[in-house]
Amino acid sequence: MTDITIRKAEGTWVVRAGGAVLGESKDALELSEGSLAPVIYFPRGDVAMAFLDKSDHSTHCPKKGDASYYSIVTKSTTLENAAWSYEAPKEDVARIKDYLAFYGSDTLAVERV
């Protein structure tokens, strides 16, 4: 079974899409799962939720629970299911409740500043 480690992400993190900063946080969490690249989770309160539309898409992770997805609406495009959140995560990963993670791409950047 893959171990999941959650720790405070060092420094300040931002998420940008379509030229706009969607979130900036000094309280981000870094989730590491086995050999996968670490994922940065942003507190919901540090994200401009007005740019996010909850989608019908969802996935299930046996270790984390059910993920809800959000599409990001920018001036020029909509990034389908580009963010996700575990609304009711399993006990072992309860720290990520009320946090959002984002899929980095050519049009969406998650970076430490």
What this model shows, in words?
Helices cover 0% and strands 55% of the residues. The chain has 113 residues and is mainly beta. The protein has a single domain, classed as Metal Binding Protein, Guanine Nucleotide Exchange Factor, Chain A, CATH 2.170.150.40. The strands form 2 sheets. The protein has a 7-stranded antiparallel beta sheet, with no helix packed on it. A hairpin with a 2-residue loop joins β2 and β3. The chain is globular, with a radius of gyration of 13 Å. It starts with a strand and ends with a strand. The model has no long low-confidence stretch (mean pLDDT 95).
Summarize the structure.
With 113 residues, this protein is mostly beta strands. The protein has strands at 4-8, 13-17, 20-25, 29-33, 39-43, 52-61, 65-73, 78-85, 99-102, 108-112.
Topology record:
Blueprint: E1 4-8, E2 13-17, E3 20-25, E4 29-33, E5 39-43, E6 52-61, E7 65-73, E8 78-85, E9 99-102, E10 108-112
Antiparallel strand pairs: 1-4, 2-3, 2-10, 4-5, 5-9, 6-7, 7-8, 8-9
